[in-house]
Amino acid sequence: MSLAWTASAWIGGTVAAALIGAGAWPVGIALAATLLALALARRDRRVAVYALVLPAVFVAGLVRFATYDVSIADDDVAHFAGGPAMRIRGVLRVDPVTGDTTQRFAISVREVQRAGGWQPASGGVQIWTGLLPRFESGDVVEIEGRLELPPKNEGFDYAEYLGHRGIHSTLAFPAIRVVGHDDDNVLRAAVLNVRRRLAHGLALALPEPQASLAQGVLLGQRSALPRDLNDDLNATNTSHLVVVSGANVVLVSAFAAGLLTWAFGRRRALLLSVVVVLAYMLLVGASPPVVRGTIMGILLVLAQVTGRRTNGLISVTFAAAVMIGVQPSAVRDVSFQLSFAATAGIVFLAGPLHDWLIEWLARLFRREAMPRAVSAFLVLPLATTIAAIVATEPLIALNFGRISLVAVPANMLVVPVFGLVLASSALAALGGLIPHAHLLFAAPAYFLLTYWITIAGGLSSIPFSSMTFGGYSSPWAFISYVAITLVSFTALRRFGRPPPRPSSESVDWRRLAPVAAVVVPIAALVGSAGILLRPAEPARLEVTIVDVGQGDAILIEAPDGQDILVDGGPGGEVLRGLGRELNWRDRSIELLVLTHPQADHVVGLLDVLDRYDVQRVIAAPGQTESIGYETWLAAVRAEGLDLEYPEQGASFDLGRGARIDVLGPAEDMGPDQLNNTSLVLRLVWGDVSFLLTGDIEADAELALVASGVELQSTVLKVAHHGSRTSSSATFLAAVRPSISVVSAGQDNPFGHPHEEVARRLGRWGQVFVTAESGSVHFETDGTRLWISTRGQ
Questions:
Q1: Which residue segment(s) compose the domain that 702 sits in?
Q2: Are residues 133 and 20 in the same domain?
Q3: Are 104 and 146 contained in the same domain?
Q4: What was the pLDDT predicted at 512?
Q5: Which of 361, 539, 649, 721 has most Cβ atoms within 10 angstroms of its Cβ?
Q6: Nearest C-alpha neighbor of 13 from the set 347, 292, 324, 391
Q7: What CATH number is attached to the domain comprising 130?
Q8: What is the CATH number of the domain that holds 731?
Q9: In this structure, is residue 756 part of a structural domain?
Q10: Which helix (H) or strand (E) element contains residue 218?
Q11: Please, which residues bridge with residue 78 across strands?
């Protein structure tokens, strides 16, 4: 334990220096005085030695932090931040992190252009840009823009966060072009290629948000999670399962060891699980936080091999001291703090919790002992997770201003299936790469991931499921929860075992096996027959105006089963809309429609082409030289599809009397009026009709009225997001809509829908705005119309 005390003193000195500064040396003196007094009182030579050594180590840690050189290199491009626009050449460090409408990535700078020539330079730059063009790790890019210093926001120092990663400047939406490609590490390039293929396999096999959650679990790509799901995971504190930390690594090791134990025995299985953990680290990306979490997790696994919990304590504290010694600034890195706290919590608390849970399960099932599989696959992961939660909640309260009150029940429901989620996600990723086999391989992952999503969503919706504080770095929240944590540690370690259970007759589980062998298949057969023989619901036409932000996307589910998608919005939100509305097994789009080639209509269709089986594509005649439109044309050609340009009067049969009529464009408006070249479609079934207007403006509206086509419709998808240039009084008088839907983003900079337009629409009937109501769903049997909203 001497090594653990020494490492703790080093960590304490570094932490004191980070919190107080160089003036923290009186703490070392106080520590020395306390230990000397204790040594004199107890007349213990060992304590006397500690009184001399530990304060000296404490001060050494303080000095190391104070003298650590964090200055920026002389040739770092950060020195140009705040100056005029400049050109930079660099290489992407990793694959970009893609959001709904943007992507971000870091580059390692190689050269800057000064005085007409290129000069060597260094440093890292964080870049934000649009979704197109798409980049990948190893791309050598030339960037032109104005560098800025990262902001220091209240409660979260983004500059310090980036500084830990060697990034000292940022650049938003610069001009970028790829000038080459350089994979300087063959192994790293191979791992990245495997990651990309597995991520693509998941995207093909699973709908959203299941695909994003699987990518987070299997590949560590948490940034792909939609905001609402990410909020649910945070509120239930199950988000740690998609972040590689010491606790997460121990979980992966526990499930791997449980499986391998059957073939190799427990000791060898634990050692082999280390290999599994290292492979998992490479798969999710060996970034510094991932490496630190992996090291701490492996040390705990090795402590289990020796059978002594004290070995885990010594190893983890020593490893943390070494990491801090190499990079003292890591002590301020939240990811390091959480990983260390989680690992320490497991060391101190997981053992007593494991014993406690085993004892109570034995009491519950009236058994003298529980099967080893229960301990390996249920109790150990639960004990590990609960211990990590108790240890990390104070840091979460301090850094993020929140505490989850449903963390324990949520993890008790999710953690036991985490190993299955991980394994089934890997199976789905591989199946997605096999033609015509993705549904078979994806089914287990889909249902397990849906279970997790349902649990997180259900528990997070409970009132007071999580508490948020007035701001970040709430000291009272931190102090209060630290006190609760210490009491929990003490109570569970001291009184962690339940009282002896009364003697009772144990259940002979082997006698239940023959019964289960008969009952389970019969129940599965009856359940399957019930699903297959269930009467089919009456055929209906369903139309969903998908909330994609500032853009358009309309999904039509025809009575004969065809799926038609009109526009795709500006990014990835359309995929989540398809995931919500379509059956998860339905991976085909029979007709894809682009009303006009602007980014807020076309960009989302690129992912739809990639992830769904699109059978036919039609588009408006308008063309542009934008990168979005050029990428769209290339994607259509890559799918082997012909791009059709229907004219006014064309019609598409949707079965059972439903059809789509092409009403416009009514006349050639010229190449400079791209909005007015929009395809205008009228969807009709019986007495109910929908008018889809793209982004047409008043000129095109008047041309449609003059052409004499049938415009009257039950539902109007309002043109151009409710812009004042559209929805003229003459046009609305021809349409006479009972219901109007405006597809617009929250707080959009254009002020859509315009107040004047909203008033005109309101005179005709009810008006929905997706920014307020979310997606708007219509369902009709040709006579009646049902409306529902998929709220924000």
A1: 541-790
A2: no
A3: yes
A4: 46
A5: 721
A6: 324
A7: 2.40.50.140
A8: 3.60.15.10
A9: yes
A10: helix 210-219
A11: none
Mean pLDDT of the chain: 83
Whether 14 and 101 map to the same domain: the answer is: no
**Tally of CB atoms within 10 A around 111:** 17
DSSP state of 623: -
101 neighbors 130 (Cβ within 8 angstroms): yes
663: three-class secondary structure by DSSP: strand
Distance CA 81, CA 86 (A): 10
pLDDT at 775 over 90: yes
DSSP assignment string, 497-528 = SPPPPPP-PPP-HHHHHHHHHHHHHHHHHHHH
Write out the two tokens for 192. Answer: 């990245």
426-448: pLDDT as tens digits:
999 999 988 777 788 899 999 99
In this structure, are 337 and 210 located in the same domain?
yes
Residues 85-97 have a mean pLDDT of 91
Residue 525 in this model has a pLDDT that exceeds 70: no
- Count the Cβ atoms, other than its own, within 10 Å of residue 488: 17
504 in a structural domain: no
**Looking at the structure, do residues 390 and 467 belong to the same domain, yes or no?**
yes
More confident of the two residues 691 and 511 = 691
Q: C-alpha 652: how far from its chain's center?
A: 38
| Better-scored residue on pLDDT, 103 or 378 | 103
Final residue of a structural domain among 164, 184, 204: 184
Largest Cα–Cα distance in the chain?
Answer: 105
Structure tokens at 428: 């789905």
Out of 2-11, 109-118, 690-699, the most confident range is 690-699
Distance CA 572, CA 729 (A): 34
15 pLDDT more than 90: no
| Residues 316 and 347: beta-carbon distance below 8 Å | yes
Alpha-carbon distance 485 to 407, whole Å? Answer: 14
Tokens representing 112 are 């800057």
Helix (H, G, I), strand (E, B) or coil at 721: helix
The mean-pLDDT minimum among 136-150, 224-238, 641-655 falls in 224-238
Together in a domain, 551 and 664: yes
Specify if 662 maps to a domain: yes
pLDDT in tens, 509-518: 444 445 555 5
pLDDT in tens, 446-466: 999 999 999 999 999 998 888
Average pLDDT rounded to a whole number, residues 717-725 = 95
Burial class (CB in 10 A: 0-12, 13-18, 19+), 344: buried
Under the banding of pLDDT at 50, 70 and 90, the label for residue 280 is confident
What is the structure's pLDDT at 88?
95
Single-letter amino acid code for the residue at 392: T
Report residue 520: phi and psi, to 5°: -60, -50
For the segment 213-255, what is each residue's pLDDT rounded down to a tens digit?
999 999 888 777 888 899 999 899 888 888 776 667 777 877 7
E strand or H helix that includes residue 440: helix 438-460
Question: Is the N-terminal amide bond of 133 cis, ω within 30° of 0?
Answer: yes
* Whether the predicted pLDDT of 271 surpasses 90: no
What would the DSSP string read from start to end of 88-140? EEEEESSPPEE-SSEEEEEEEEEEEEETTEEEE-B-EEEEEEES-S---TTEE
> What is the number of domains present in the chain?
4
Q: What is the pLDDT averaged over residues 118-124?
A: 93
DSSP track, 457-509: HHHHTSTTSEEE-SSSS-HHHHHHHHHHHHHHHHHHHHS-SPPPPPP-PPP-H
Domain end position, chosen among 184, 201, 231: 184
Tell me whether residue 212 is in a domain: yes
Closest C-alpha among 627, 214, 242 to residue 426:
214
- Note the helical H segments in 285-350: 288-306, 309-326, 334-345
Radius of gyration of the chain (CA): 31
Q: Are residues 236 and 107 in the same domain?
A: no
Question: Are 279 and 423 in a shared domain?
Answer: yes
